[in-house]
Amino acid sequence: MKKILIFEDNSEIQLILKLFFKKRGCEPLLYGDASEAVELARAHQPALILMDIIMPGKDGLEACKELRSQGITTPIVMLTSKAFREDRERGMLAGATAYILKPFNPKDLDAVVHPFLV
Amino acid sequence: MQSSILSWFSVLAAPACAQFPPGVVLDDAHFRSSLLFVLYASLCLFWIVITLFVYMLIFRIYHSLRSAYREKRKELFRQGVELTLLEEPLEKVMDAFRPRRPGDLDISQEVLLEAACHLKGPPFDMLRETAYRLGFMEENLRSLRSRSRHRRGRAMEALGILRSSQAIVSLLDILDHEALDLQLTALRALAAINDPVVLPYFMRICDRLPPALLPRLISLMLEFGSAAHPHVRELLIRHANRFSSRSYAEALKEIAQGLERTL
């Protein structure tokens, strides 16, 4: 079963993502902040990381940069309500693989994450 | 024993004695009345503090019990979100969200709204249909006329999240009578419903809004997409003198971001 690391502080989105990945036969691991993202990524060896940008403590961009600087190459999908090109570019520069805007259609999320789960 | 009690009383009465200038000798009657005053005042204060403390304690216990109960009930209704995401039939989703006890309607609706505001596409449509069929829309429309401003505000938000086009007339109707914060909530709800027919009302309300809120109004108008552009242009021209240089810059930033969203 493929593990998915999810860093998201909103409990409702956590629930939606948990159900989304369970339905696709994955094991979602949910965390409310990304302060230990590197350690968790090393410990679980996930197939995919989903990361919210705005979180308490370490934000998603910072955590993404840290993961990449530590040599973790797992695909990272940013999940955020920031809709502007500038923010998307900042996410990509930090090392994100793809971007999904909130609110999201599960079908759009599926289209983004599917290549990483097969 | 009696003398030791009296000595304690005299300690308590010390502040009362301090009101007399030095050299004034108090007779027994004066001393006793001051002593009694201090004694009663101290007792009153003591009981006020105890009562407040007990009240706060009861209040906190009530709130923690209430939130624990609500959380437990929310868990139950979250099955509805699960069924929505599993693309189960509408009847099953409705059954999961159907209120079972008094007070459930509020909790069920809260769970539904929390999920709806993060979703788009078919899951959102299913949640909206569920809300409609379970009577949440009518309940919120009724709540718009509630005496509680908190309830009215929540109803506006709910109708906005559910993009209830039936609410447009009611929301426009209350725009003129509400306080500024609720006017903004109603405008946010109208922007979420996203029917450009309301744009002239946005133009009308900008005469009443404080200049500092004009950039926020522009940002809400831009949620309507290209239909809002002529109105925004008109607003900028007509109210140019009401913008400070800072708020004008903010408004231009909102326009740039709105255009980016449209593109």
- The general outline of chain A is globular
Count of individual helical segments of chain A: 5
| Helicity of chain B, as a percent range | over 70%
- Greatest contact pair? A-B, 18 and 18 residues
pLDDT below 50 for ≥5 consecutive residues: which ranges of chain B? none
Q: How confident overall, as mean pLDDT of chain B?
A: 86
The SSE string of chain B, one letter per element, is: HHHHHHHHHHHHHH
Number of domains of chain A: 1
Please list the strands of the largest sheet of chain A in the order they lie side by side.
2-1-3-4-5
Distance between the termini of chain A: 11 Å
Alpha-carbon distance between the two ends of chain B: 90 Å
Find the CATH topology of chain A. Rossmann fold
What is the H/E string of chain A?
Answer: EHEHEHEHEH
Strand proportion of chain A: 15-25%
Largest sheet of chain B: none
Q: Largest sheet of chain A, described in full?
A: 5 strands, parallel
Query: Quick one: how many beta strands of chain A?
Result: 5
Structural class of chain B: mainly alpha
Number of helices of chain B: 14
Mean pLDDT of chain A: 89
